[in-house]
């Protein structure tokens, strides 16, 4: 072989090796795909599925919510996959804090409130969460789900399953103005009736909630019935900062292990607790038990008050 032909051959071999080095990894080294996602299946935390060429792990209970890195963040992208036998999922510990956002998906929210008023949007709730980042984000996965369920169970009771945006007894409307407050009732004597998921009422509560949230609710109380995020924020304000007629905030009642019953006391006190209205207490408990089951967790102890 001539020197010229040998050099040409060596050059061709070098080019081929360079191309091979630049090629991406083949499917032989890619992860094998899990069982394909099924819209009718129920998945709990740690369940593995494949979807659109990627493997995904469920972070908590989900149904009919396709794997995605957006939305509620229920699915964790495990990277691309090829064909092959399904891998075995590694369950997540219920004692490990949930790394991904609010532990209630939109599909679960829809199941909880199938007949809700269109005003109460899931996105409005998600938008409101930034105001109180510790809410449903403190403690173990179990505690986080319990708090989300407890909050929504009380909201369920206060609003007739998210049907009512405003208080239905209009005769009460003029009674919620405490004129002795130095700021009075600038929006009108009958302007501070119950609104929103926990039925915010009284001029002093609108003032306090508005001050905490950076919104002038004293002069603009109607924002609570016209802006879904504002409505949810007022409910979260009460839940996370107010003892009400109880001895602790509802948030602290759950995260510190005092139980669901203490959240009822913080909202309605002896009007329901201590024998005040056992049927109303049981109604809240029933909703809480349904919601914890839907979220794949346990209700815990001390349900009544």
UniProtKB/TrEMBL annotation:
<dbReference type="InterPro" id="IPR000726">
    <property type="entry name" value="Glyco_hydro_19_cat"/>
</dbReference>
<feature type="region of interest" description="Disordered">
    <location>
        <begin position="66"/>
        <end position="101"/>
    </location>
</feature>
<dbReference type="InterPro" id="IPR023346">
    <property type="entry name" value="Lysozyme-like_dom_sf"/>
</dbReference>
<feature type="disulfide bond">
    <location>
        <begin position="273"/>
        <end position="305"/>
    </location>
</feature>
<protein>
    <submittedName>
        <fullName>Chitinase</fullName>
    </submittedName>
</protein>
<feature type="domain" description="Chitin-binding type-3">
    <location>
        <begin position="34"/>
        <end position="78"/>
    </location>
</feature>
<dbReference type="GO" id="GO:0005576">
    <property type="term" value="C:extracellular region"/>
</dbReference>
<dbReference type="GO" id="GO:0005975">
    <property type="term" value="P:carbohydrate metabolic process"/>
</dbReference>
<dbReference type="InterPro" id="IPR003610">
    <property type="entry name" value="CBM5/12"/>
</dbReference>
<feature type="disulfide bond">
    <location>
        <begin position="177"/>
        <end position="185"/>
    </location>
</feature>
<dbReference type="InterPro" id="IPR016283">
    <property type="entry name" value="Glyco_hydro_19"/>
</dbReference>
<keyword id="KW-1015">Disulfide bond</keyword>
<feature type="active site" description="Proton donor">
    <location>
        <position position="158"/>
    </location>
</feature>
<dbReference type="Pfam" id="PF02839">
    <property type="entry name" value="CBM_5_12"/>
</dbReference>
<dbReference type="GO" id="GO:0050832">
    <property type="term" value="P:defense response to fungus"/>
</dbReference>
<dbReference type="GO" id="GO:0016998">
    <property type="term" value="P:cell wall macromolecule catabolic process"/>
</dbReference>
<keyword id="KW-0378">Hydrolase</keyword>
<feature type="signal peptide">
    <location>
        <begin position="1"/>
        <end position="30"/>
    </location>
</feature>
<keyword id="KW-0611">Plant defense</keyword>
<feature type="compositionally biased region" description="Low complexity">
    <location>
        <begin position="84"/>
        <end position="101"/>
    </location>
</feature>
<dbReference type="GO" id="GO:0006032">
    <property type="term" value="P:chitin catabolic process"/>
</dbReference>
<dbReference type="GO" id="GO:0004568">
    <property type="term" value="F:chitinase activity"/>
</dbReference>
<dbReference type="Pfam" id="PF00182">
    <property type="entry name" value="Glyco_hydro_19"/>
</dbReference>
<dbReference type="GO" id="GO:0030246">
    <property type="term" value="F:carbohydrate binding"/>
</dbReference>
<dbReference type="InterPro" id="IPR036573">
    <property type="entry name" value="CBM_sf_5/12"/>
</dbReference>
<keyword id="KW-0732">Signal</keyword>
């Amino acid at each position: 072989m001539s020197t010229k032909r040998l050099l040409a051959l060596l050059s061709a071999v070098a080019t081929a090796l360079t191309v091979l080095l630049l090629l991406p990894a083949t499917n032989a080294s890619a992860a094998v795909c899990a069982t394909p996602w099924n819209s009718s299946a129920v998945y709990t935390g740690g369940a593995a599925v494949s979807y659109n060429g990627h493997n995904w792990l469920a972070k908590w209970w989900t149904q009919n919510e396709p794997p995605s890195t957006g939305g509620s963040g229920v699915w964790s992208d495990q990277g691309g996959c090829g064909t092959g036998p399904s891998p075995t999922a590694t369950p997540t510990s219920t004692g490990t804090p949930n790394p991904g956002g609010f532990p209630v998906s939109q599909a679960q929210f829809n199941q909880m409130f199938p007949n809700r008023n269109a005003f109460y949007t899931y996105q409005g709730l998600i938008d409101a969460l930034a105001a109180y980042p510790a809410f449903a984000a403190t403690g173990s996965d179990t505690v986080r789900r319990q708090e989300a369920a407890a909050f929504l169970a009380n909201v369920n009771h206060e609003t007739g399953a998210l049907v009512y945006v405003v208080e239905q007894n209009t005769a009460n409307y003029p009674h919620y103005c405490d004129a002795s407050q130095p700021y009075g009732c600038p929006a009108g004597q009958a302007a501070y009736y119950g609104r929103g998921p926990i039925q915010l009422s009284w001029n002093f509560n609108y003032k306090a909630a508005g001050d905490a949230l950076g919104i002038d609710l004293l002069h603009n109380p109607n924002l609570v019935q016209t802006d879904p995020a504002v409505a949810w924020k007022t409910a979260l304000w009460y839940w996370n900062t107010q003892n009400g007629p109880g001895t602790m905030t509802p948030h602290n009642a759950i995260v510190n292990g005092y139980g669901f019953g203490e959240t009822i006391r913080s909202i309605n006190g002896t009007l329901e607790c201590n024998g005040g209205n056992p049927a109303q207490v049981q109604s809240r408990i029933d909703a809480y038990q349904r919601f914890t089951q839907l979220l794949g967790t346990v209700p815990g102890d001390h349900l009544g008050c």
